[in-house]
Design brief:
Elements: H1 19-29, H2 37-42, H3 49-56, H4 62-65, H5 70-73, H6 92-103, H7 114-127, H8 131-135, H9 146-159, H10 161-178
Helix pairs in contact: 7-9, 9-10
Length: 179
């Protein structure tokens, strides 16, 4: 089928369109995306970002919150005697809850796929420690080398040490029953 006549033409650039204004208004309308639930619940949409963060005791600009001392920069700073104003933290519970969450120990999320566990168990069951035999096995669909198979078995040993010990013990038990 032939192409439509107007499809191949280049679009004309509109010089009269103010793109900066369009971009700014779109950014202004978008609400800030807040990841932390504590901040989200304490957020007041009628106030600015700086005001909200100041009330929670959080810093808007990390460079202003923790300034680099001028001595480190190689310049001497003369103090004029004026102290900085202290900011009033009206919502200290937000920072406290965030600190508590950060202090909790992290859960280990090391898991392997069920397919990989079955693959490793099959190889150990049929070949024991013979990695070259494992590499030549017909179930080695991905054509792993002996080193790659050994690495997969070591990962399985590290992620599930108790399960591995029980599995090896059950294999020894099966060999004893067969004999």
């Amino acid at each position: 089928m032939p192409k439509a006549k107007g499809k191949t033409r280049r679009q004309k650039y509109s010089y009269n369109l103010n793109r900066k204004r369009l971009y700014r208004s779109a950014r202004r309308r978008a609400a800030p995306r807040i990841a932390c639930s504590h901040i989200r619940h304490a957020w007041d949409s009628t106030k600015s970002v700086a005001q909200n963060l100041a009330e929670m005791g959080l810093a808007e600009d990390p460079n202003k919150a923790v300034p680099i001392p001028k001595k480190l920069l190689g310049m001497e700073l003369e103090s004029d005697g004026r102290g900085q104003r202290k900011k009033i933290v009206r919502k200290p519970y937000v920072v406290n809850e965030m600190e508590y969450e950060a202090s909790l120990p992290e859960k280990k999320s090391n898991t392997l796929s069920r397919d990989l566990i079955d693959y490793v168990q099959y190889m150990i069951r049929n070949h024991g420690e013979n990695y070259k035999g494992m590499a030549q096995d017909e179930k080695n669909y991905y054509q792993d080398t002996p080193k790659q198979i050994k690495r997969k078995i070591n990962v399985y040993k590290n992620f599930y040490p108790d399960e591995y010990k029980n599995f090896v013990a059950s294999l020894k038990q099966e060999k004893m029953d067969v004999q």
